[in-house]
Write a structure and sequence with these properties.
Chain lengths: 311, 291
């Protein structure tokens, strides 16, 4: 489109030099856009167009090949579905718990690893290894071996060995989400640890030196040097993690066969999948997608507001 | 070389500090090995146990009577060879498509800078803010009936390759790398009469090997790990990826065979990781830092 609207060269005979210059400019622009065109077509087809289409679809209903405008009907139907609220509850619970576990632990692990002068490479490889596994593979491992509700399961065997009460894991409605958080943290924390490690290495050593001379102990040094120095990356990763965990999907699908015991695992993303691909309700699924987008956008707006206020 | 961190070097080498350091190090090394390698060991050896042995309490540390048959069954019953080939084929194509189109686009945005280039870049980066799950339905509807062309891409590898080109993170990563290549080099090539394509090919690309490697590795692992999208756009058993194939068979297959299949499915990415771990780790941190 940009190519079409480029200004035509002025056709004056008096100034041939400007004419050839502007022709050259057009040619350069055309070359530039020629290099862009492949990516632009893919973005247009699979990102920009679907974004608009999703919103449009959410106000339409397609039945037997006929599409009609139905206003807010899809939204009303989706919100009236009792699993809608269960799904949001579960998703929020998962997000909060995943933040407590998956956000604090990697930071502490990174601080610890940064102090070691030995076995650094080995420890890094270990933490990142689960990130490289296909999530389906890792989740079958958790489902069949770790979360086996009998005492033959790995986790129950360990608990029993320590003399602690065993758990039913995925069979128990109260343990379903914590169990999914454990599996998800194990699979994903590697990237956060490595990103924190890199930002820890950028902290100038003199700051610690100065803090120590001022008599700051270990905890004080973490509080007054490490955290302020990594604040930006900590904030960014919190944001990214919340957006990622709100899209919880494959954990319920594989670990809990979708909805889980008494709907304890149903997530918003799983509901989108259910509506779109099992209940033949792509329009309802699109409406749910728009709701999810609005919630995440509202959350991001609040977050940006808070973080700019602080600075 | 290593600058000072939270605890000073000197403190770690003195009496009590030294003891604490070495105890903590051994505890962490042991603990991490158990936490991160332990489950993998459990997975590989568990798949060697018989159905009876896996249900035994307490569980055995090492299979009493290793059943390699589980792995053989996984390979033959689930047609893993075909599934692995499919996944490999999609991954290889994704690397080619992403490298060609994303590199060309990033080069244009960084060095050629055509009119509206910044607007296009902004629109591309804006897609980073859209959660994948939100787009899954409209993307699916687009793929089953492509606008204007009215082609159905279901079961076609293009339904995996083309959406992957629309990766703003790659464009951002590549553009930033190209931005760091001095303008003088470009100008010198232009004076010598080299075309933009020629400049890209013989000057920019050879200097960009590290970043191209990172993009390629991330592209392979993204395809290998992806689940929902290939599940939706590759509905036929013949075109499935390995993760989707295992999931499809999981219901009617003995647990140990499913786990054996999961082990086999994980081997390629683990090998890629062990070979390219340096590139992967540097790529991971360079994308998010110093921005």
């Amino acid at each position: 489109m940009a190519i079409m609207t480029a200004p035509a060269p002025p056709r004056t005979t008096a100034a041939p030099s400007t004419s050839s210059k502007s022709r050259r400019k057009i040619r350069d622009n055309l070359t530039g856009h020629a290099f862009l065109i492949g990516a632009v077509i893919c973005f247009a087809l699979f990102m920009w167009y679907p974004m608009i289409r999703g919103v449009v679809m959410s106000f339409q209903r397609t039945r037997r090949g006929e599409t009609t405008w139905v206003g807010w009907d899809n939204y009303v139907r989706i919100v009236a579905d009792p699993s809608f609220w269960t799904a949001w509850q579960n998703t929020f619970y998962f997000t909060v718990l995943a933040l407590v576990l998956g956000y604090v632990i990697p930071f502490l692990v990174a601080i610890l690893l940064n102090e070691f002068r030995h076995a650094k490479g080995y420890l890094r490889i270990l933490v990142y290894l689960p990130v490289m596994l296909p999530p389906a593979s890792a989740l079958f491992l958790f489902k069949f071996y770790a979360y086996d509700p009998s005492e033959a399961g790995l986790f129950n065997a360990i608990l029993a060995g320590l003399g602690l009460p065993t758990s039913e894991w995925m069979q128990s409605p109260t343990m379903t989400i914590p169990a999914m958080v454990i599996a998800s943290t194990w699979m994903n924390m590697g990237s956060a640890v490595l990103i924190y490690l890199a930002s820890l290495q950028n902290i100038p050593g003199e700051l610690y030196e100065a803090a120590e001379l001022d008599g700051a102990g270990l905890v004080k040094r973490i509080w007054h040097v490490t955290i302020p120095q990594t604040k930006l990356i900590l904030a960014l990763l919190a944001m990214l993690q919340i957006v990622a965990t709100m899209q919880l999907f494959i954990e319920p699908l594989i670990l809990a066969n979708g909805a889980g015991t008494q709907d304890s695992a149903t997530s918003v993303a799983y509901l989108i999948y259910q509506h779109g691909f099992f209940q033949n309700d792509l329009n309802g699924a699109a409406a749910l997608g728009v709701i999810m987008l609005v919630v995440l956008a509202a959350f991001s707006a609040v977050y940006v507001r808070l973080s700019t206020k602080e600075n | 070389m290593s600058s000072r961190t939270l605890v000073s070097q000197a403190q770690l080498q003195r009496g009590r500090g030294k003891v604490v350091y070495w105890t903590l190090l051994s505890v962490v090394v042991l603990g991490f090995t158990l936490v991160f390698l332990g489950p993998l060991y459990w997975m590989v050896t568990g798949a060697l146990k018989s159905g009876q042995e896996i249900a035994q309490t307490p569980p055995t540390l090492w299979p009493q009577d290793p059943q390699t048959q589980n792995y053989v069954d996984a390979w033959t019953n689930l047609a893993l060879g075909k599934l692995l080939f499919n996944t490999f084929y999609y991954a290889a194509g994704a690397v080619v498509f992403q490298l060609v189109f994303d590199t060309a686009a990033a080069y244009s945005l960084s060095k050629l800078r055509p009119v509206l280039g910044n607007v296009i870049l902004g629109l591309m980066l804006a897609t980073l803010m859209i959660p994948a799950m939100v787009l899954i339905v409209p993307q699916y509807v687009t793929v089953i009936d492509l606008p204007i062309l009215h082609i159905n891409l279901l079961d076609s590898p293009f339904s995996i390759w083309l959406p992957l080109v629309a990766n703003a993170f790659n464009i951002f990563l590549l553009k930033r790398f190209f931005d760091s290549i001095p303008e003088d080099l470009m100008a010198a090539a232009m004076v010598d009469g080299a075309s933009p394509l020629r400049t890209l090919w013989s000057i920019i690309l050879p200097m960009s090997r590290p970043i191209l490697g990172v993009v390629a590795i991330f592209s392979v692992t993204a395809v290998w790990k992806d689940f929902l999208w290939p599940k939706l756009v590759m509905p036929s058993p013949e075109t499935r990826t390995v993760s989707v194939g295992i999931y499809a068979f999981a219901g009617g297959t003995p647990q140990n065979v499913v786990i054996a299949a999961s082990v086999i499915a994980a081997i390629p990415t683990v090998i890629i990781f062990l070979i390219f771990q340096r590139n992967i780790m540097s790529g991971l941190t360079s994308g998010s830092l110093k921005g």
